[in-house]
Amino acid sequence: MVQRVKQMQDEGIEVLGLTAGEPDFTPPKVAEEAGIEAIRNGMGRYTAAAGTQELRQAICEHIRQDLRLAYEPSQIVVTNGAKIAIVQSLLALVQEGDEVLVPTPCWTSYPEMVKLADAKPVILGCDERNFPRVADLEAQRTPATRALLLNTPNNPTGAVLPEALLREIGEWALEHGISVISDEIYASLVYDGATHHSPMAVVPGLQETSVLVGGMSKAYAMTGWRMGFLAAPQMLATAVGALQSQLAGSPSAIAQIASVAALRHGGEAREQMRQAFEHRRRRVVETLQAVDGLECAMPDGAFYAFPDLGPFLGRRDPATGRTIGNGDDFIEVLLEADRVACIGGSAFGSPDSFRISFAASDEVLEEALRRIAARLAALLQKNLSGPGRSPTRPGRKKD
Ligand SMILES: Cc1ncc(COP(=O)(O)O)c(C=O)c1O
Q: SS3 of 119, please?
């Protein structure tokens, strides 16, 4: 979808894009300046495979301060993006025949990453707040279950898992020897007093078995700098470092220097961005909630809204004549008729929904939301409507 929008825009077609998985902000100035200076000073050489000592130290300080977790620099591996941190954790942890539990809705890449590591993704649904349930995890557990992929705050739902639930899940994982790969890339983007908790901080025993993943992309608007990291038990961190020395050599030297500056001095810029997202999120979700029939939970974190199309499914769109069978049909109609681009829910294992990114300017958001609301209202018009149906999500249980 992102590529299609780009192509349409290149052809001169005006499209309002709400697809972005990246902040529409620039990195903290200090990070940019540090990067420029590093280039001028000829610092663009290979570094240690697991990252520079200075950045690993800065990451430890960041984790201690933000997540209340103590790690040694030797337990940190700096990676070329959080994505690679997750893939390399899986490559180090699982092998053919292993199973990895993946609660959905989830980030598109998780099931594919598990398959890349020769293991089997076991997809399971969440409750109506988009929280995984221990009973569901337990129901899917087999002797082959090796790991659980958790993501809080969540892409695409914005759900922030509460401390009590993380305790329950963490203790269950520990009891059954299941490693948690905890993707906390959106940790700093929580709103209206919501608190992010790392499962490792809630259940300290997990620090011996599990992996914490973070990065610079979302918190510091540094997506293209490709900087992520993981914190893991020493043996696992050493293994991932060795793997990385063969796969990537080392992470980008210049981006590492910029990341040290961002982590040490970019806090204010990070907070300003968070506040901007907090403001937009309220406007976006309140507009969506005002649409007759549309269900949209208020996301506590990240920068996405994930409305459920339940009552709109099965309806025929008057402008295009298309019947809306799922979120993918809806986003096609939106693109064709309204020139608004979103992402269909099937990409996240939740086909009846669609994802709106609010990493877009106020003007774009306002106009795009107006068009989305009008399209939904048109779908519900009685004389044109089909039967409609209530939400049904394969693999997704409701309370
Ligand atoms: C949940 C989640 N984890 C990880 C990533 C990857 O981040 P990075 O840019 O650091 O590779 C993304 C990017 O969209 C994401 O949404």
A: coil
Do 195 and 276 fall within a single domain?
A: no
- Looking at the CA of residue 84, tell me the nearest atom of ligand 1: 11
Helix (H) or strand (E) holding 138: helix 134-140
- Ligand 1 atom at shortest distance from the alpha carbon of 21: 14
Per-residue tokens: 313: 């499914």
Provide the CATH number for the domain around residue 124.
3.40.640.10
Supply the pTM of this predicted model: 0.94
Best probe residue, ligand 1, of 104, 107, 149, 212 (max atoms within 8 Å of C-beta)? 107
The pLDDT tens digits for 141-169 are 999 999 999 999 999 999 999 999 999 99
- pLDDT reported for residue 109: 97
Ligand 1 surroundings by CB, under 6 angstroms: 21, 81-83, 107, 151, 155, 183, 185, 215, 217, 223, 228
Residues 311, 357, single domain; the answer is yes
Task: Kindly state whether residues 192 and 286 are assigned to the same domain.
Answer: no
> If you measure from the C-alpha of residue 122 to the centroid of ligand 1, how many angstroms do you get, rounded to a whole number?
20
| CA 350 – CA 105 distance, rounded (Å) | 6
CATH number of the domain that 336 lies in? 3.90.1150.10
Q: Distance (Å, rounded) from C-alpha 185 to C-alpha 215?
A: 6
Q: Which of 173-187, 271-285, 382-396 has the lowest mean pLDDT?
A: 382-396
Range of the domain at 328: 2-21+269-380
CA distances from 294 to 128, 288, 348, 375 (A): 14, 7, 19, 12
